[in-house]
């Protein structure tokens, strides 16, 4: 296999491919210079009207920008940002032409012939491939039962059909082992759903209305790139942009202030801010009384008081007018918020009071000790955030919540927004990811399977270890789709062991990704523009039809085609083998939207600006936001946000830190979305094509590591090789590793990342990792 770093091209080829020379700049244009047996063919002058155009969306876990493909004589020639769409896509989006025609495209089903990991395969036919899959599923069902089947999917294609179809296929078989939690943002989910009643509340329509933008543990200049113009617009209108990150990230480079922080200590910072906001009475008492559970009452046994124990929503409050305990939703009351408003010897207190007590020990000195943030910065941060309203916390599935106690990090950010009454207002709130799916109810593509066994899941971060140790039961057949399992799951060496242990691993992908190297069978699937689909998701506000523009390369098939053929073999073909339009219509049923409407372009199903929780109405059954979370309490964790020391940290594991003293955080790069796009030679041409490790000069000097030379980050899980960037743009004691490098490019930083499951959301805590670094010998 050709080394990807060898595939470099000259800049002119890149620009030509992107259409910068040619179609985009001068049209009608010259693009064809094909050679016929050494004799140049006549140059063909094409007009825009000679091309057919089709629209689709960039379907990975990013912003789902709408793209227009230009097709000439059945070949995809160029992709550009759709003209009428609200955001302009990035280089990754327009380089997708190269993804379709990539030299590492999987062209036929491939059967392993070498050892797993060697990447030696022989091409086989689809019939042979499907026979093998059928046989291995039947054998697994006979020997292990349904729980012996595992399906893993993630964010390679977030359309409304493919992943759902995969999960449904295994449900129709009677069930399979699935994952719990997510590699991405289950900490946010575990905070938001009980607090606000739903996941996803993105404020991106009103970023420019904000007066104070706090990018807390995230880096929108890179990770929300197509929207970053909104942040700049806010700054031009006078907003202050502040970044909290252990490293000086690309957003910090544009910001008014960078606040470096010790990784994993964000909740300590939040509690320090809350203390200041409460003590200086900078909270919005009126908002808290009307729209939140801050006024609910709690007894000394830490139970919330209810009028009727059977009625979950009958929370009691103390009405300061009638001086009685009443239901929280009684009209014309003024519920007590603070202890001072309660009767002197009351046998209960308010949730607000519990928050005050929890934050009380977090003096500026104590916060400084834990987070390394100076007192003056903390005071400025708390005061400016609370007074420069509307102020917005950008969360966008942040790196800060991919930590061991990430749910409390995310929840503490919601606490701050709620305490200051900064929710449901243009320019305020917490900017999460979000999309059309919040605005309208879409249906699943297929009816639910009739009989599905309840099978205990595998926490996604534990995938490698649990499979190796047969937990919760042995896995005999593993289907991996839309997922870079080998680069994105933590603890790569354990994942490799798991991939080797499972007797039959199927990887459906369109490129010979790192994961395919460990497959028994690789199935070639389509990319966008090679099949028809629908995107009604959680990353773009628009419902988008994903049109087929060209025939699939070689033998590639859509994932849904594969499940249709397999379903036929298992006797439920008719559920899966209808024309794709049928499944798209199922998704759209009840929305009033039609395929024909969508053919004209993307549709936003709600007015702009989209403001979740407008006017303080939340989606919990009480319509109020909750601070006291009984779901956490049921898991034996405090119901009020609290700070806990991350275990894999110098303070949490002093012994381990003697061997691995540096805290390693991850960063996402402009060159890729996770492990995708990063192999695209057009991108390699303009972005660096080797992994970096950011390290502070003091940490580098004591290890004889020099800028620009190879270094190895290592710990008890594995090693990751990268070029050292010796810089003061990262805190002393912290290193930052790149996310998403392929095995074929030297390997992923997940070789060292923590595979602990985040405590409340069962998620991913790759940013709670200890390593040491050495110069390469
Ligand atoms: N270009 C690009 N864009 C993307 C993606 C991509 O891969 N590439 N992925 C998309 C996806 S799926 C997601 S989830 C989002 C994620 O978007 P982001 O959260 O912005 O992405 P990350 O780079 O993971 O993390 C951001 C920052 O968190 C910092 N960090 C790490 N640990 C801590 C901590 O404990 N505290 C604090 N305060 N900061 C910490 C890191 O130094 C890093 O700069 O981006 C989306 N957009
Ligand atoms: N070390 C480290 N690990 C991380 C993170 C980190 O910051 N650092 N971030 C985490 C986060 S936030 C996330 S969201 C995850 C993302 O993890 P993944 O969703 O696994 O992301 P990708 O690596 O992009 O893998 C997607 C794969 O799907 C393939 N694909 C694309 N289209 C299709 C299709 O239509 N069908 C099929 N079958 N396959 C398709 C792509 O070619 C690619 O191989 O990674 C997590 N893992
Ligand atoms: S990678 Fe993200 S920003 Fe770039 S085109 Fe795709 S969705 Fe848009
Ligand atoms: Mo993510």
Automatic annotation (TrEMBL):
Species per Swiss-Prot/TrEMBL record: Serratia liquefaciens
The entry's keywords: Iron, Iron-sulfur, Metal-binding, Molybdenum, Oxidoreductase
Record's keyword annotation contains rRNA-binding: no
Identification of the protein by name: Molybdopterin-dependent oxidoreductase
Sequence ranges assigned to domain Molybdopterin dinucleotide-binding in this UniProt record: 665-762
Listed InterPro entries: Asp_de-COase-like_dom_sf, MoPterin_dinucl-bd_dom, Mopterin_OxRdtase, Mopterin_OxRdtase_prok_CS, Prok_Mopterin_Oxidored
Family: Belongs to the prokaryotic molybdopterin-containing oxidoreductase family.
PANTHER family: OXIDOREDUCTASE YYAE-RELATED (PTHR43742:SF6), TRIMETHYLAMINE-N-OXIDE REDUCTASE (PTHR43742)
Keyword match NADP: no
Occurrences of domain Molybdopterin oxidoreductase (ranges): 105-569
Alphabetical list of Gene3D superfamilies matching this protein: 2.40.40.20, 3.30.200.210, 3.40.50.740, Dimethylsulfoxide Reductase, domain 2
Highest rank taxon of the organism: Bacteria
Cofactor (UniProt): Mo-bis(molybdopterin guanine dinucleotide)
Pfam families: Molybdopterin (PF00384), Molydop_binding (PF01568)
């Amino acid at each position: 296999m050709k080394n990807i770093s060898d595939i470099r091209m000259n800049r002119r080829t890149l620009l030509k491919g992107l259409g910068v020379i040619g179609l985009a700049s001068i049209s009608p244009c010259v693009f064809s210079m094909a050679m016929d047996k050494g004799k140049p063919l006549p140059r063909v002058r094409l007009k825009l009207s000679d091309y057919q155009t089709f629209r689709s969306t960039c379907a990975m876990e990013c912003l789902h920008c709408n793209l227009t493909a230009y097709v000439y004589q059945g070949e995809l020639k160029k992709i550009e940002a759709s003209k009428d769409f609200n955001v302009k896509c990035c280089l990754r989006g327009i380089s997708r032409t190269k993804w379709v025609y990539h030299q590492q495209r999987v062209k036929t089903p491939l059967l392993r012939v070498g050892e797993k990991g060697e990447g030696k395969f022989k091409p086989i036919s689809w019939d042979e491939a499907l026979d093998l899959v059928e046989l291995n599923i039947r054998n697994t069902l006979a020997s292990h039962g349904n729980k012996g089947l595992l399906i893993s999917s993630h964010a390679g294609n977030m359309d409304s059909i493919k992943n759902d179809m995969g999960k449904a296929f295994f449900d129709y078989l009677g069930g399979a082992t699935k994952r719990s939690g997510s590699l991405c943002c289950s900490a946010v989910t575990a905070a938001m759903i009980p607090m606000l009643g739903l996941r996803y509340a993105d404020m991106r329509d009103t970023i420019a209305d904000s007066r104070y933008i706090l990018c807390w543990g995230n880096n929108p200049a890179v990770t929300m790139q197509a929207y970053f113009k909104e942040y700049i617009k806010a700054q031009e209108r006078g907003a202050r942009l502040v970044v909290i990150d252990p490293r000086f990230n690309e957003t910090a480079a544009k910001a008014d202030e960078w606040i470096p922080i010790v990784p994993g200590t964000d909740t300590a910072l939040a509690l320090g801010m809350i203390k200041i906001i409460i003590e200086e009475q900078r909270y919005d008492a009126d908002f808290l009384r009307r729209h939140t559970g801050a006024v609910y009452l709690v007894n000394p046994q830490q139970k919330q008081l209810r009028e009727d124990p059977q009625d979950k929503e009958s929370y009691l409050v103390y009405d300061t007018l009638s001086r009685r305990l009443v239901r929280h939703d009684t009209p014309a009351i003024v519920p007590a918020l603070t202890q001072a408003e309660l009767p002197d010897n009351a046998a209960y207190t308010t949730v607000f009071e519990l928050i005050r007590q929890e934050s009380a020990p977090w003096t500026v000195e104590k916060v400084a000790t834990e987070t390394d943030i100076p007192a003056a910065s903390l005071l400025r941060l708390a005061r400016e955030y609370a007074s420069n309203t509307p102020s917005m916390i950008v969360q966008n599935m942040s790196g800060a919540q991919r930590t061991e106690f990430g749910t409390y990090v995310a929840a503490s950010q919601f606490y701050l927004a709620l305490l200051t009454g900064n929710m449901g207002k243009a320019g305020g709130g917490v900017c999460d990811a979000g999309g059309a799916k919040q605005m309208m109810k879409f249906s699943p593509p297929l009816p639910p399977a009739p009989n599905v066994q309840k099978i205990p899941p595998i926490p996604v971060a534990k995938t490698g270890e649990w499979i190796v140790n047969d937990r919760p039961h042995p896995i005999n057949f593993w289907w991996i789709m839309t997922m870079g399992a080998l680069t994105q799951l933590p603890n790569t060496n354990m994942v490799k062991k798991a991939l080797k242990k499972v007797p039959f691993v199927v990887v459906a992908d369109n490129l010979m990704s790192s994961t395919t190297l460990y497959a028994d069978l690789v199935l070639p699937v389509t990319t966008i523009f090679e099949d028809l689909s629908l995107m009604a998701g959680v990353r773009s506000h628009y419902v988008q039809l994903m049109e087929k523009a060209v025939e699939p390369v070689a033998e590639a098939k859509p994932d849904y085609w594969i499940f249709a053929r397999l379903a036929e073999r298992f006797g439920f073909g008719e559920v899966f083998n209808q024309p794709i339009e049928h499944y798209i219509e199922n998704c759209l049923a009840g929305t009033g939207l039609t395929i024909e409407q969508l053919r004209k372009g993307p549709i936003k199903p709600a007015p702009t600006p989209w403001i979740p929780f407008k006017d303080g109405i939340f989606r919990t059954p009480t319509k109020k936001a909750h601070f006291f979370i009984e779901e956490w309490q049921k898991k034996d964790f405090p119901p009020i946000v609290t700070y806990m020391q991350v275990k894999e940290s110098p303070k949490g594991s002093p012994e381990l830190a003697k061997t691995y003293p540096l805290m390693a955080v991850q960063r996402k790069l402009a060159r890729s979305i996770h492990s995708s796009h990063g192999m695209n030679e057009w991108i390699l041409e303009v972005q660096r094509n080797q992994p970096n490790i950011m390290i502070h000069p003091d940490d580098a000097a004591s290890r004889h590591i020099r800028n620009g030379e190879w270094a190895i980050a290592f710990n008890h899980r594995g090693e990751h090789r990268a070029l050292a960037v010796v810089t003061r743009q990262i805190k002393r004691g912290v290193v930052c590793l790149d996310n998403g490098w392929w095995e074929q490019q030297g390997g992923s930083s997940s070789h060292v990342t923590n595979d602990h499951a985040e405590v409340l959301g069962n998620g991913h805590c790759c940013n709670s990792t200890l390593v040491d670094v050495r110069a390469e010998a």
